[in-house]
Write a structure and sequence with these properties.
Blueprint (H helix, E strand, L loop, with lengths): L5 E5 L16 E6 L3 H6 L6 E4 L6 H10 L2 E4 L8 H11 L4 E5 L6 H9 L10 E6 L2 E6 L2 E5 L5 E6 L4 E7 L8 E3 L9 E2 L4 E5 L5 E6 L5
Length: about 220
């Protein structure tokens, strides 16, 4: 996999209305089951199709077989979602720079499940993000440096447990060794004041939502 710099996983959620994700020639493109439809819509051919394929129609599957796309098919009755299998597969292939797109949709259980996957222990040392139009989501286990711009919206949400020792730089409402609770909304809708934001957390983990264009 030395020729690929990044894995881009297309899940089976909604395609972002404003797609800010730029696909590079060096990307390893993964169709996660029904996410194949998004790749085909964009005129792209995946390097890998993975899942139980219950959301892939016969015609599209035939195209992949005709094009020589690698296909990893799993049983429908399994413990992992197709996206979890895809994440573990690209990690096994040595790809640690991972972008997930089309992971948000009207199935809230699927959306929350996809967000939860950012906290997979196997991903702790990888650089992983969910890209959904103007919003990018990161999981912060200890520290993150984010290139941004003044006025961008930054929200911090503790995931699964209380986050202790949260400190930030470059935000309008700074946090200095603070505690954020999963049942409180203190970390929502902060504003970047510079082109560089840092967030650190001593214990627990945070989800960072970086919104480049706010809805009116």
């Amino acid at each position: 996999m030395e020729n690929y710099k990044r894995a881009v996983l297309f899940a089976n959620g909604d395609f972002p209305e404003e797609d800010a994700l730029v696909i590079e020639d060096s990307d390893f493109l993964v169709a996660v089951d029904g996410g194949l439809r998004h790749l085909l819509f964009l005129g792209l051919t995946p390097q890998l199709l993975i899942g139980d394929l219950d959301s892939v129609n016969t015609e599209d599957l035939g195209l992949c077989m005709e094009w020589g796309v690698e296909i990893l098919r799993f049983p429908t009755h399994k413990d992992e979602t197709d996206l979890e299998l895809a994440l573990l597969e690209v990690l096994q292939r040595g790809l640690t720079n991972i972008v997930i797109t089309c992971a948000v949709g009207d199935r809230l259980d699927h959306t929350l499940g996809n967000l939860a996957l950012l906290a997979l222990p196997e991903l702790k040392d990888a650089h992983v993000q969910i890209s959904h139009g103007s919003t990018t989501i990161y999981c912060v286990n200890d520290h993150i440096d984010l290139e941004t711009y003044p006025g961008a919206l930054i929200s911090l949400l503790p995931w699964g447990e209380t986050a202790h020792g949260v400190s930030t730089t470059g935000l309008q409402y700074p946090l200095n060794d603070e505690t954020l609770y999963p049942w409180k909304s203190r970390g929502i809708s902060n504003i970047a004041t510079s082109d560089h934001v840092t967030v650190t957390v001593k214990t627990g983990r945070l989800y960072l939502f970086y919104v480049t264009r706010q809805s009116t």
